[in-house]
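Our preliminary data section would be incomplete without showing what the modeling component actually yields. Below, a chain of 341 amino acids is followed by its predicted structure, encoded as tokens that our downstream tools consume directly.
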Amino acid sequence: MIFLGILVPTLASALFELGLWLFIEPRPQPLEVFGRILLMFVASTIFTTLMSAFQQRGQRQTRKFRDLFVNSSDAILILDEDNVVQEMNPHAEKLLGFPTPIPLKRLGQLDLAQPLSETSVTCLDGSSIPVAVSVSRMPHETMLRLSDLTELKADQARRLAWRALEVQEEERRRLARELHDGIAQGLYSLRLVSNQGQPIEEMLTSLMEEVDQLAKSLWPPVLERLGLHMALQTVLGKMARVECETIRLEPAREAALFRIAQEAVSNAVRHGGAHNVQIQLKKLGEEVHLTIEDDGKGFNPQLESQGLGLLSMRERAQRAQGRLTITSAPQQGTKVEVIVK
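Predicted structure:
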């Protein structure tokens, strides 16, 4: 385009000079006239060829854009300066069901200030579809590209459900080991001692305490009666130093935070070889912070992020509508922090 901007004035100037020369020159030589006309012919031919090439290039780009627009697997919307959808590609028409033109606000709250975002759009039938939104600004127009995330969200839900089943199975295996290695062995020993006519009161007391501890690990009554802060102190206080403010949350959230703390302390002692574990529960503004920090051997969270224990903590934090952060490194201990509002 810059070249055309230079060529057109040059050609016009050459034509003007030729006309002026013919007017002024009293008796122009035929050969000289022929040369100038030939020069103008060549210049005109070059100009026409270039114009045709640029037009063909523009037409090819237009066809390419239309092909992409029509055949795209994503929904593409073209907005005018008033944020009115003036055109949709076939996939957008099928996905949304709206005719054009239509005000963009009919589709929901789409943030055009963000080049990339995730949201939900409302279709003509009232259904809501999760989409990834890409915004491209053009002179006098805006192009929106909507990628349907329905299958992705469904796949994530399936994965989450499968991980939850894995966590449940691991919990069942843990309970089976506790029953077999502790209570079952104790009952067997109790039978042997009883058959030998020896006192069994002490063994019975020990077994009863073990059963009580197992029951409390499944669901500590103090959590329901007195809240998270007392449950942390009562159940985990023997394995960790607990510093808790008196905070009450919804029962489901308190249960999720307690399980996260329980899992973190168990990992620190059993797998991390920690000698010191500290639990803090405090409120900062509108947020509740639960922190479990130990001086164990640590690990690389990037390499071990798929362990069932870590998955269990992440899923519980997600259900509590909180944010879970795990900071650790080999030989540097581990810090687990959950923040909920």
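Residues 153-218 form one domain. Confidence is low (pLDDT under 50) at residues 1-6. Preliminary results of this kind motivate Aim 1 of the renewal.
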